[in-house]
Write a structure and sequence with these properties.
alpha/beta, about 15% strand, 8 strands, eight-stranded parallel β-sheet, about 45% helix, 14 helices, single chain, globular
Length: about 325
């Protein structure tokens, strides 16, 4: 099983549907601020919009107050997601620094109180995404996983880094494997962190025995990574994708983003991180000025014109790398 990780400003409906089309077994929304949801903030409520084409889909919430989180979960349930996911893994300062997300790894009793409150508030299966611990001196995930299971969660996703690591260094899957192979654990365990190739996906399944793999940053500008990984996991040859083909998918993403946001410029700006990170353009010689132009333009016609130029200039015979 291959899941699209929840990512703020990334996993909106436009991108989720693309990833689903290429074989993501489950997709997750951007995280939803529980306090803002309870206050009925329009931009937050909008994140609850899901479609049947995305299913199974999880809506992820975060916060630090058990009551607010339970209330938010009940609001989320009305959107009829397949899962309600709790974010105990976000490391950024504006979240973890305020005692939510990965910040709750410093107060595991509070983390468990929130989990119980959410599980008891809804009938929808509740899942959790977290990290190994706050830092290398507090690697609590093995014991925490058992405690979370006792709270009644349906699944647990583990990012193989501590909060103090942020996204630096290599993800450590050793403890993920230890959780999965703990005889006291019976819920599915999802591994996350640095899975960027079909070969690595296979290694993680084989070596650590996880039930699913969650793919995050490797999806940027590359929603077809799910199909590539599925080919690899099934022992099939991963198709060589032409640059022209890949660029057409990036164009489709731009159009979907504009349609979702309802504004051409904002839709393009929202898509830029995918241009910047896409493997399609990596390693092209003398590409700097073209890349700058691509990231500065704010009309669809100009974006597509530059992309077409890239294909004409560099794409002949070049497979996606």
């Amino acid at each position: 099983m291959l899941y699209l990780a929840p990512m703020e400003d990334v996993t909106d409906p436009a991108f989720r549907l693309l990833c689903k089309r290429f074989g993501a077994d489950r997709v997750y929304t951007e995280f939803v601020n529980a306090d803002a949801l309870v206050r009925d903030v329009a931009s937050t409520v909008r994140k609850l919009q899901i479609s049947d084409a995305e299913r199974p889909v999880a809506i992820q919430i975060y916060g630090k107050d058990p009551v607010a989180m339970a209330d938010a979960a009940q609001i989320v349930e009305q959107a009829k997601p397949d899962f309600i996911d709790i974010n105990f893994g976000c490391p950024v300062k504006k979240v973890a620094g305020k005692g939510a997300g990965a910040g709750l790894l410093q107060t595991p009793d509070r983390l468990l109180e929130i989990t119980r409150a959410v599980v008891n508030a809804v009938k929808t299966p509740v899942t959790v995404k977290t990290r190994l611990g706050w830092d290398e001196q507090h690697l609590i995930i093995v014991d925490l996983a058992e405690a979370l299971q006792d709270c009644g969660i349906a699944e647990l996703a583990i990012h193989g880094r501590t909060r103090s690591q942020m996204y630096r260094g290599d993800a450590d899957w050793t403890l993920i494997g230890e959780v999965k192979n703990n005889p006291r654990m019976h819920i599915p365990i999802i591994g996350n962190g640095d899975v960027t190739t079909p070969e690595r996906a296979r290694e993680c399944f084989d070596r650590y025995g996880v039930d699913a793999i969650m793919i995050g940053r490797a999806t940027f500008g590359c929603p077809w990574i799910f199909e590539d990984m599925r080919f690899g996991l099934e022992g099939k040859e991963v198709p060589a994708r032409s640059m022209a083909w890949c660029v057409e998918i990036l164009k489709e993403h731009v159009e979907r983003s504009i349609e979702w946001i309802g504004d051409e410029r904002k839709g393009i700006v929202h898509s830029r991180r995918h241009f910047a990170a896409s493997p399609v353009f990596k390693g092209l010689p003398d590409f700097k000025q073209t890349r700058i132009a691509l990231l500065r333009t704010d009309t669809k016609a100009e974006v597509f014109q530059i992309m077409d130029h890239i294909v004409q200039e560099w794409g002949k015979g070049l497979p996606n790398r």
